[in-house]
Design goal:
Shape of chain A: elongated
Order of helices and strands of chain A: HHHEEHHHH
Radius of gyration of chain A: 24 Å
Number of helices of chain A: 7
Number of domains of chain A: 2
Strand order of the largest sheet of chain A: 1-2
CATH superfamily of the largest domain in chain A: Winged helix-like DNA-binding domain superfamily/Winged helix DNA-binding domain
CATH architecture of the largest domain in chain A: Orthogonal Bundle
Oligomer: homodimer
Largest sheet of chain A: 2 strands, antiparallel
Largest interface: A-B, 74 and 76 residues
Chain lengths: ~200, ~200
DNA sequence: TGCGCCTTACATACCGGGTATATATACCGA
DNA sequence: TCGGTATATATACCCGGTATGTAAGGCGCA
């Protein structure tokens, strides 16, 4: 529901038409998470259907100006007042993938952790470089960037934690489910190979 | 695309029917992210449509057993070998919300940061409590839990960082965009009020 | 025996998010 | 004037997610 409320919030400051809303959103988040224009129009249509905005005809050009209604303001106030719950968040694909990898004895989980780590490390460096080039008056964009940096750092810490857990497990019960002979019916080799983590 | 690949991965170890797949998935992730049974069947239907699995008739009961095809194994190998990119991730609703809040002068961003912080703190404590009650042989579930803990910790650090940035900003350019007189055309008071953050 | 209830198992309707594409106008430079 | 780019709206389609429907089998109990 994040687009829905974002549009409401943007409309609270000032009425606007679809294209304008996308532009505002993108300057906010510096165009990470590019917002597809189609979503803006479909979401606006739903908001109008639900009575949260009204699309007042055209301005001097043929553009459709949307503005908040009373219920729209109520809905927005509710959003501002309630925290973003952890249950509201989408499934974490990486966590699931690693969970699957460490469970399946035919998968080389250590190699997967390595490739993931170096990839995350690389994007962490990209983000840090990006941060150095932001103007100090773009506060919102800067905070979004730093959010991604904090998340990437947490991810690296977690991956390291997974690796040491894996080693401890291998020590605790060595060669579980991994037959010594080359008699796998389904080889399923993990082709993942780390390019080497910087650190 | 995380369900799609999760089902492929689960089917790689052993052929199964839909209901069974959900059960396996839920023991993996300890039923955070509960997987709706409907999604399993629709996803299986799409996988069969795309030739990645085949639904071989019925077993001794009337159940439809799915198993991986060659292309299915290829697709799965590709998934294992490629890291989860940061661009593949969904929009972060919290980051967007805070970005919107700090940009809109009519919103009390500090209050929102406070409520969010105490909420996240609360779930962090819940997660830590949960972790204490996990058996040591449930490795996958434990790692998923710890992933959520690491993320919650990063979120708290980020929220604190936002708060200090906000204070610095307020000092750098005091009362920007906030007219001294009570002449707002649209009041839009943030009703958010912190319940008081621990620590 | 039969009624109700739970679990297992599959299926479908519906909504929102996300992407790609179609269409039209305006402007600008070669 | 032709083509490319920016502006602006709209629509088709897929996937993820939720709720609901349906049906068979097992279990308890009056």
């Amino acid at each position: 529901m994040s687009i829905r409320h974002s549009l409401l919030a943007l409309l609270a400051s000032d009425s606007a038409y679809g294209y304008q809303l996308r532009a505002r959103f993108e300057t906010l988040t510096g165009s990470v998470w590019p917002l597809n224009i189609g979503q803006v129009y479909t979401t606006l249509a739903r908001l109008e259907r639900d009575g949260l905005v009204v699309g007042a005809g055209s301005d001097d050009e043929g553009r459709i100006i949307y503005r908040l209604t009373g219920p729209g303001r109520d809905e927005l106030a509710l959003w501002w007042s309630s925290p973003v719950g952890r249950s509201a968040r989408p499934r974490d694909e990486l966590a699931i993938k690693i969970a699957l990898a460490v469970t399946d004895p035919t998968i080389d989980a250590a190699a997967i952790l390595q490739t993931q780590r170096s990839d995350t490390m690389r994007s962490l460096q990209d983000l840090t470089k990006l941060k150095r080039h932001t103007e100090q008056d773009e506060v919102a964009w800067r905070l979004v960037l730093e959010s991604m940096i904090f998340n990437a750092e947490a991810e690296i810490r977690w991956l390291d934690h997974c690796e040491s857990t894996l080693l401890r497990e291998a020590h605790r019960r060595p060669e579980v489910g991994r037959p010594p002979g080359p008699s796998e019916p389904t080889p399923q080799n993990a082709t993942a190979r780390g390019t080497g983590a910087p650190a």
